[in-house]
């Protein structure tokens, strides 16, 4: 039962802390959309690398290496985060990790359009991605103290939608000011505009992080995980014991972690390689890629909001299954399509279903995580995702190598999504608001 001084779920005011929390997602669009998807990675593969093929291969390698490091560190990191217990510490750790991401983003302004700079750019991307995944462990674990009973899906959806809307606003600003064919502020020299844009992205993220570092949570913190208050080496031993216990006691939860790892890698690949495919296979100009990114974020934001609303009514699993099925079908159609119009239609459909699948995945775990172990299980969530983070990039590269054309990479991504769909089917469904209500006892 809650203590007498704790705010009750029905009366707690969550508007202001929810807005502060979602502001971080809003700001993270600077890294997700400018750096990893639509601007900097396209710049690396198209202008910095000697050619697009070698640049795409190097990009996939960097992402895979970063993923392996996250897989090794994230679960123990999350475990030790839980041991600390105090939410102020969680906010402080989120702040330090975000500072690393911002620094990496700002340093990308030094990457000139010459092949000798490629690996420096990829190093900054890898370090920033590593810090971002650990920051997500802290950020996602905060949902437990923000979502009142029956609103877990909605809160998660609002966070994802804020990220997409932040991406829209930032992309519009950068496109109009720096990246359009006739920008408001033109720059001389290849790649100069992109290097200015990453500085803008760094400032954007820094400002957007301030609210979450100053926020007060509407619900009290659970007690710290005292079992996890051990050294790093002992933390790995504890991790293996808990995984064995999870396999013995809750195979559906373990099954969800494995399944979501697979399909989330496919979802990430949709955006990671979306800009590359748009330019290389479907013939969009760099300016058109940015315009599409703006539209895609609008559609994704709407999808995340609707998905969160449906999540609280029918449960997250059904929403995820429908979204994955739609993504697989759309990818199959796009494999044989050509031209900018086909990409606009297919890419818009993909964007519509990516947001709900991402939001509901986070909601599923937030509904069932035991109090005091949020960091550990969201660390496992990050780890299982990164443990197979090589899968979609490898499949993307493999099918390009086998068939000799970039478009066949779509087949590799589609197969990863299909595998994730197949492995999710036997996982136990979590109900909508009824299941969320079970999480009402917070202390």
UniProtKB/TrEMBL annotation:
The keyword Cytoplasm does not apply. InterPro entries: Atg22-like, ATG22/LtaA_families, MFS_dom, MFS_trans_sf. It comes from Actinomycetospora succinea. Keywords: Membrane, Transmembrane, Transmembrane helix, Transport. It is a multi-pass membrane protein. GO terms for cellular component: plasma membrane. Its main location: membrane. This is UMF1 family MFS transporter. The chain crosses the membrane at residues 21-44, 56-74, 94-111, 117-135, 155-180, 192-213, 253-277, 289-311, 318-337, 343-365, 377-402, 408-427. One of its GO terms (molecular function) is transmembrane transporter activity. SUPFAM superfamilies: MFS general substrate transporter (SSF103473). It holds the Pfam family ATG22. Residues 252-443 form the Major facilitator superfamily (MFS) profile domain. It is found in: Cell membrane. The lineage of its organism: Bacteria, Bacillati, Actinomycetota, Actinomycetes, Pseudonocardiales. The keyword GTP-binding does not apply.
